[in-house]
Amino acid sequence: QVQLVESGGGLVEAGGSLRLSCAASGRTFKRNAMGWSRQAPGKEREFVGVISWGGSTYYADSVKGRFTISRDNAKNTVYLQMNSLEPEDTAVYYCAASSSVGSFPRTVREYAYWGQGTQVTVSS
């Protein structure tokens, strides 16, 4: 059974930083792109960024320059480093794995496997 488990969410003041982790189990995702998305109350799930199996990254404009995705394939873990956080970043953050090796999905619907999410709250 494939399982993605996020951790590291919490409450932080505006301008602060958080680092989210996503640990995968049940299978390896070393050759799959891994992405992060978020969903704020009353809004649709929004793509945040993606990292390919080789380490290439792509980010939504709203987080570019502030968020960084990295991965440790030996640990089957992906990270989301969030700096200069803003109240608008408040959301539940989800990690996800692409469905096919070699893809580089940049939309929420292209992901096949999802974690349960972790809450990030940024106070003003």
Sequence-ordered SSE layout with sheet pairings:
Elements: E1 3-7, E2 10-13, E3 18-25, E4 34-39, E5 46-51, E6 57-59, E7 67-72, E8 77-82, E9 91-98, E10 111-114, E11 118-123
Parallel strand pairs: 2-11
Antiparallel strand pairs: 1-3, 3-8, 4-5, 4-9, 5-6, 7-8, 9-10, 9-11
Descriptive overview:
The termini are far apart. The chain is globular. By secondary structure, the protein is an all-beta fold. The protein has strands at 3-7, 10-13, 18-25, 34-39, 46-51, 57-59, 67-72, 77-82, 91-98, 111-114, 118-123. Strands 2, 4, 5, 6, 9, 10 and 11 form a 7-stranded mixed beta sheet that branches. The chain has a 4-stranded antiparallel beta sheet with strand order 1-3-8-7, with no helix packed on it. The mean pLDDT is 94. It has no helices and 11 strands.
Task: Summarize this structure as a short list of keywords or feature phrases.
124 residues, 50% strand, seven-stranded mixed β-sheet, globular, four-stranded antiparallel β-sheet
Distance between the termini: 40 Å
Task: Quote the beta fraction.
Answer: over 45%
Q: Structural class, from helix and strand content? A: mainly beta
Mean pLDDT: 94
- List SSEs in N-to-C order: EEEEEEEEEEE
Indicate the low-confidence ranges by residue numbers: none
Total DSSP E strands: 11
Taking the sheet with the most strands, its summary is: 7 strands, mixed
Helix content range: under 10%
Determine Rg (CA atoms, Å). Answer: 13 Å
Q: How many DSSP H or I helices?
A: 0
Shape: globular
Question: Quick summary of this structure?
Answer:
The protein is mainly beta and 124 residues long.
